[in-house]
Amino acid sequence: MKVLVLNAGSSSIKYQLFDSAEWRVLAHGLIARIGEEAGELKLNWYDAAGAAQSRQETRPIPTHQAGLDLLIADLRERGLLADVTELAAIGHRVVHGGPNFNHPMIVDDAVVAEIESVIPLAPLHNPGHLAGIAVARQLFPSVPSVAVFDTAFHQTMPPTAYRYAIPEFLYTEHRIRRYGFHGTSHHYVAKRAAALLGKPLAKCNLITLHLGNGASASAIRNGQCVDTSMGLTPLEGLVMGTRCGDIDPAVAIYALKNLGLDADGVDQLLNRQSGLLGICGVNDMREIDLRAAAGDAAAELAIGITAHRLKKYIGAYSAELGAVDAIVFTGGIGENAAGIRQRACADLERLGIVLDDTLNAARKPSGERRISTPASAVQVLVIPTNEELEIAQQALAAVSPIE
Ligand code: ADP
């Protein structure tokens, strides 16, 4: 059988098509600029001989439905999906599942209503996901759609971790609490870490660090998330590409009172103009590395603040967990930026963390690997994330009868 994974935004749909037999990627790509004159269709696939092929087309794609219609026609033409009956499930990435979803859900009207009800908590994401879900249900009524939530893995946090020290009515009446995001990625790398450690996940204590354009840390005890750095929204926690992460909330009040900004202006300031971009004018870590190496003080400071914040979270989560089996780096920065890893883990011998500088700096191998010394009580691992695979596997598991 095959599983289609969709990550639908307000004007784009990213997709991957898997063969569930050995979880091979058959095709992946992007439907972009939906609703604009020059919509874009990108398809990458593997032909019968296993050779990578790609095709790109610019044409009007008025709606999500038109985009998916074109995609299915493309897949059919290349023999990748002869008929939609080959699809066991469609897995949908949903950023915010609110307080009630702690596992993937086969989508029905009640699930749609619940995802709608948390739109105020994720106004930039959930409407796009809902558009993708609506079209999938309409075009393929016989194929179950499964919503896989970024928040679900974090639902095991205790109230001491997920409640904020603010008046209770904000929680009871407005559902304001820590939710956490990137859960699919934290869960995936935690499972892979357990496999590398040779232990069941249920016996692993881990600190997982997903460092991409967005960044978050999770503390995992006995395989379950007990704390995470993102909060009500993905703004809290680590330094990110354009998001500030942890700051004194009074910064927002100051901006409202003194900078002539309204709520949307403050939202833009903290979500889109801050983080690495705000500190040094660039949000691409590769560029920042090059600039810092060339002596740019702002770029150096951006790296310094990022690593300092990471180290604080490693320390905090080490204290929360007591014993840590492994720290896992993932995401574009976590997988590639050796300098950030080195600074975040430096001088933590007392916490049992000893990086092997040669293994850390080596560019090859680039896959799953250990970068700590054999003497390090806490293993430090690099594990490339694969959120699409995790969504596909969770979607198939959700529609498969329990054995
Ligand atoms: P997203 O959150 O959009 O999925 P990614 O996980 O792809 O993002 O991470 C993007 C970040 O990873 C960018 O800051 C990018 O510069 C950084 N990155 C990718 N490759 C490297 C590299 N070789 N060295 C340093 N940073 C890298």
Automatic annotation (TrEMBL):
Keywords: ATP-binding, Cytoplasm, Kinase, Magnesium, Metal-binding, Nucleotide-binding, Transferase. Its cofactor is Mg(2+); Mn(2+). The keyword ATP-binding applies. InterPro entries: Ac/propionate_kinase (IPR004372), Aliphatic_acid_kin_short-chain (IPR000890), Aliphatic_acid_kinase_CS (IPR023865), ATPase_NBD (IPR043129). ATP binds at K14, H210, L211, G212, N213, G214, D284, M285, R286, G332, I333, G334, E335, N336. NCBIfam families: ackA (TIGR00016). This is Acetate kinase. The gene is ackA.
